[in-house]
Amino acid sequence: xxxxxxxxxxxxxxLLIIAASTTAQSNKTLLRVQFGPQxxxxxxxxxxNVTLRLHGPLSEPVTVNFTQTNATNDNAYxxxxxxxxxxxxxxxxxxxxxxxxxxxxxxxxxxxLLAHLSPSSALVDxxxxxxxxxxxxxxxxxxxxxxxxxTYFLAWTWSFWPQIWENRTRAxxxxxxxxxxxxxxxxxxxxxxxxxxxxxxxSVQAEYLRRNPRGxxxxxxxxxxxxxxxxxxxxxxxxxxxxxxRGQQKVSYTARAIMTVFALVVMISxxxxxxxxxxxLDFFYNLSYIKLAVTLVKYVPQAVLNYRRKSTVGWSIxxxxxxxxxxxxxxxxxxxxxxxxxxxxxxxxxxxKFGLGLFSVLFDVxxxxxxxxxxxxxxxxxxxxxxxxxxxxxxxxxxxxxxx
Length: 404
Known about the structure:
Blueprint: H1 2-27, E1 31-36, E2 39-43, E3 47-57, E4 62-68, E5 78-81, E6 84-87, E7 94-105, E8 109-118, E9 124-128, E10 130-136, H2 139-158, H3 161-170, H4 178-200, H5 202-211, H6 221-243, H7 253-274, H8 280-297, H9 299-309, H10 317-340, H11 345-348, H12 352-374, H13 376-384
Parallel strand pairs: 1-9, 2-10
Antiparallel strand pairs: 1-3, 3-7, 4-6, 4-8, 5-7, 8-10
């Protein structure tokens, strides 16, 4: 028995050695062509450097040349120096050599600089043989875009709090559409789930990169922070609805039907994931589409409620002004970037973000007109506590200590 055990241990150890050597050998069979860094921003007329590295087994001389996606020979984005690089195998037939490549900006645009090995071989790993290059017209415009971006991020983030403060001051949520609140909570929840999945979940990120091999994860930390804060703030307003005067209003059957349809979409997507028809990335994409659809319809109930009451009291104008600022600056940043990078396709080729910003701004303009022009006198009467003969099923809140 001892001999058998000893033999088994010897065989097991031999298998481990063979497996380790096989793994080491497989790791050395690929010649890797790598760029570093893989993301560069250059100004027209200026030069930046990247490093090209060749690492792995090399038994014959090879040459590396470069191409630029979305460019022609007569209309290149950058001038690449040197245009080709020759590599000669060392005596060991294993190379680890890095060369500096200079990129001089010629015209604005966003593209991938690709490295190609000649003669080509199936034993070459070129998964990192690219660098995403952004050629801009001006550093000043990049700074302006950054300021605009932070402005709209902060405006949208803080746009919830004037409504929360107004509800607290009035001890009432009369005048605030419950349909708007319900749809808003649903939309922000879907958006938060999508952002969190793409920002934190490794398998979802891996699937995204598999479909977009030279892409970057589109969700940043500020996207996650904004969406989670939006869920919290909207939820806080809904909690206020349970404690403050709310009149006779409730979530309408129309809003319930819309949310039921969205719930069915989520349920069906979950079933498709469970059956293997969908991947989790598809599931979370559907959640983001729900967010887009909600944004298109969520403002309508509040505009209709204001019209029926002939008043905007209870609907914070601070919320509207901050939302208007956020939407306007969001579109402005897209226009600045489109000009600076000569990348108008980012707006008109995929107009969802621009369209949603425009849609929200148009509704904010309507709310501003309702508040300051159409119902200004009615708002004044309500705030003074006088009898207001509005269309009647919605009771008004106590008039003391009301801020607008």
